[in-house]
Design brief:
The chain folds into 2 domains: 40 residues, no CATH class; 96 residues, Nucleotidyltransferase, domain 5 (2-Layer Sandwich). With 142 residues, it is α/β, with parallel strands linked by helices. Helices cover 32% and strands 25% of the residues. Helix 2 crosses helix 3. The chain contains 3 helices and 9 strands. The strands form 3 sheets. Strands 6-5-4-7-8 form a 5-stranded mixed sheet, covered by helices on one side.
Length: 142
């Protein structure tokens, strides 16, 4: 493409692409995703109990996580989805999610203020579904 300036001379357009705005946008998106990625894996606000021996295995985004808040509401999450569930339907839901899965591990995240009977019930339901249950805690030093 050619342009004519005020003196009548013909000039060609600059054919280089300015990548600085593209790099700026990509860096902003990278920071946004880095901040939101840990929130997407758990999502439910739970104050985990602190122990000296914290669990060394980390839950992956594909892991099945059962979260219990301090009111005793149970949430089932995995594969980037979260749903509040009826505690009486938990065995069937866990069995359905673990059907055909190679990893039968279920992570239980219970709030430190949750009544023990609720956590015990969730553990029982997960065991009845055939899951290998892991309790999630925080290290005592945090």
């Amino acid at each position: 493409m050619a342009f004519t300036n005020q003196r009548g001379r013909t000039q060609t357009a600059l054919a280089e692409i300015n990548v600085t705005p593209l790099v700026d946008v990509m860096l902003v998106l990278l920071v946004i995703f880095m901040v939101t990625a840990p929130i997407l894996t758990t999502g439910i606000q739970v104050n985990l109990p602190k122990t000296r021996e914290a669990q060394s295995r980390e839950a992956t985004p594909r892991s099945l996580i059962v979260s219990i808040d301090k009111e005793g509401q149970v949430y089932l999450s995995g594969r980037n989805e979260r749903q509040a569930v009826n505690i009486n339907d938990l065995t069937g839901l866990i069995s359905a999610r673990l059907a055909g899965a190679s990893d039968r591990r279920v992570y239980v995240r219970g709030d430190g203020e949750t009544p023990y009977r609720v956590i015990a019930w969730v553990l029982d339901q997960a065991k009845r579904a055939g899951a290998d249950v892991s309790l999630v805690t925080e290290p005592a030093g945090k």
